[in-house]
Amino acid sequence: MSHSGAMNESRRTLSPRARWAVPAVAAVAVGLAFVAPPLFASADDAGLPTVSPEELAAQVASAEPSPLSGTVVYTARLGLPELPFGDVGGANPVALLGGSSTIRVWSDGEERSRVALLGATSEYSVVQDGPEAWTYSSTDDAVVHYSLDPADVARFDELKAQAEAGELAVQGDLPTPEEAGRQAVEMAKLTSTVTLDSQTEVAGRAAYQLVVTPRSDTTLVGRIVVAVDAETSTPLRVQVWSTSDTETPALEIGFTDVSFATPADSVLAFSAPAGASTREVVVPLPDMPAEAATATPDKELPEGVTVTGAGWDTIVQASGLDVAAVVAGDPSAAASLPGVDKTFGSQGAADLYSEFMPEEGSGSPMGDLDTSALYETLTTEVPEGRLLSSALLSVLVTDDGRVLVGAVPGATLQALAAR
Q1: Among candidates 36, 76, 77, which has minimal Cα distance to 235?
Q2: CA dihedral of 282, 288, 294, 297, whole degrees rounded to 10
Q3: Which helix H or strand E contains 207, and what residues bound it?
Q4: How far is it, in rounded angstroms, from Cα 106 to Cα 108?
Q5: Gene3D superfamilies from the xrefs (predicted)?
Q6: Cα distance between residue 397 and residue 405, in whole Å
């Protein structure tokens, strides 16, 4: 399968800052490298210019997306049980729960990208070209093509033109990069100690090494160290240490080689392997109500969700859940999760939901993966229900339909559940 003629004539992009996408679990890990904590530190090593926390935060916030290609190694040492499933050592997102995985990335810094999660004998790839995307699993020899329908393409182009012309009104004040940097630093200092370690080199690049250490005595997170490229302000590596091991990071993701040259067109173009099956999925472009453009950071929690504690000790609790049914892939159970809009807002969104959720009785939405067995393997039985304990996160599922999640020891969740 090749790009459509329309896309050859005129590529479209959701945003000049559109980035490559990755499988769900990898997305969380990669996202850690781009959130606020990496920005907090001042540089005072002789080899790199001295900057304030606010200045460094502003540099990262205002940096133009860079074309790049490279190899990323992701390693998880979360202390989870060994997974007794066939190809989890291959190019399967579940493999990211433990051990090391290799990810190859390419991006033109604008609208085209490719990511490949590599296994010993398999590959899972995601290719993006503006609003179109393709996934390919070599294990299943299957392609999924995501696109907009013609009406949404026209509306998308109109919104893009309005945005480029500055015609989309936004209510409320948007901070400048400098102001955003100042706010980020102030927020970090509320719960953490922010320092600068010695400058380092990652993938042959000089980088600032920023350290965020929680001031909490009860969180599982010991510290976060992020290396930020001194020239491009691109995060090159993130390491998260657990309080249970001060020698080796529990989670680490970083480039082993990287180039900021624009990748060749042949790398970014998608072409399905001969004989691969192809499934088409039309993704609805959501409506943009007027209130969506209003700057309203404070929102009410979904019904059934409560938050206890603050900062690194925050515990989120959801009630009224049939976790066993959700794990087994029951669509009705998934639709009842807190925060899920049961009306979906549009028929298009409901149709898209149907694409991913199985028919009644047809099993897990994750294909051949036995999610119920995975759940049983990762959790242990406790008086309150079942507990997942890892080096950085605990999850307690109670017998009365509650789920408690926090970067705290499991005993803390059990004590809260017993109240």
Answers
A1: 36
A2: -30
A3: strand 205-214
A4: 7
A5: Lipoprotein localisation LolA/LolB/LppX
A6: 9
- Of 209, 301, 286, 240, the closest CA to residue 32 belongs to 240
H/E element holding 176? none
Q: What is the DSSP letter of 33?
A: T
400-410 burial, b at 16+ Cβ within 10 Å, e below that, comes to eebbbbbbbbb
Give CA–CA dist 208/228, Å, rounded.
Answer: 5
Whether 122 and 278 have beta carbons less than 8 Å apart is answered as no
Q: Where are the domains of the chain?
A: 5-277, 300-417
Burial class from Cβ neighbours inside 10 Å (0-12, 13-18, 19+) for residue 217 reads exposed
Look up residue 38 and give its two tokens: 């990496």
Per residue of the chain (419 residues), what is the pLDDT tens digit?
444 443 344 343 333 223 323 333 333 333 333 333 333 334 445 478 877 666 766 777 777 788 999 999 999 999 988 765 544 445 566 767 788 889 999 999 988 999 998 877 678 899 999 888 999 988 889 999 999 888 888 888 888 787 777 666 655 555 656 666 667 767 777 898 877 788 899 999 998 887 889 999 999 999 988 788 999 988 899 999 999 998 999 999 999 999 999 999 999 999 989 999 999 998 887 765 544 444 444 557 788 899 999 999 999 999 888 777 777 666 555 556 665 544 444 444 455 445 544 444 433 334 456 777 788 888 999 999 999 999 999 999 999 989 999 999 999 999 999 98
Q: 277-282 and 403-406 as β-strands: parallel, antiparallel, unpaired?
A: unpaired
Class of 5-277 per CATH? mainly beta
> What is the side-by-side order of every strand in the sheet holding 385-389?
305-308, 315-318, 403-406, 394-398, 385-389, 380-382
* Helix or strand run (H / E) with residue 120: none
Q: Residues of 84-123 as b/e, b for ≥16 C-beta within 10 angstroms? A: ebebbbbbbbbbbbbeebebbbbbbbbbbbbbbbbbeebe
Helix pair angle (53-62, 177-191), 10° resolution: 130
